[in-house]
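[agent] plan:
  1. take the single chain provided in the ticket
  2. run structure prediction with default settings
  3. attach C-alpha cells to the ticket
  4. add a short note for the reviewer (M.T.)
[agent] executing step 1
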Amino acid sequence: MSKPQFVYVSYIETTPEKLWEALTSSEFTRQYWFGAEVRSDWKVGSPFALLLDGEVTDSGEILQADPPRLLSYSFKHHKFAELRSEPISRVVFTIEPFGSLVRLTVLHDGFVEGGKYLGAVSNGWPAILSQLKSLLETGKLLGIPRAALNKGFDAK
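[agent] step 2 finished; step 3 output follows
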C-alpha cells in the first residue's frame, strides 16, 4: 500500500533558472509565500529553514540540489502543536523545460496515514504555487489571503 503524498504539477511561462531563483531566494519567497523566507546555502547536507514573521515554522536538510533541475529537502513543522509530532516529511521540486514553458512538479511525501499534516500542506501548497506562477508570469500576486494556508486545518 502506498503512503499518503501530495503532488502538484504546474506549467509556468518562465525559465528553469528564474524558477530556481524564485524557489531559493528569500527576495522571491517573501512575495509569493505570504512573507515567508527560505534560508539555506542549497548544498546537499546543509540546513534549511522557513521563517515567517521572524519565526522558524519549518526546518530540514537539503537532500538534493541540482540547479536548475531538482531541489529536495526534508521538512519538519514547528509552528502548530498539532503538527509537531508528525514525522519529518520530504519536499521535491522537479523543474523541466517544456517548450517555452517550465513544468514544475512538487512532491511532498513522508506523511503518516490519518495524520493532519497532509491536509495542511494540501491547502497550503496550491495557494503558494498559484502565487508563484502569477508572480513569475505577470509580476503580480493574486491576492490570496494568508488564511488560505490553513483552510480546512484548525490551527490554534
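[agent] step 4 note for reviewer: The mean pLDDT is 94.
[agent] ticket updated
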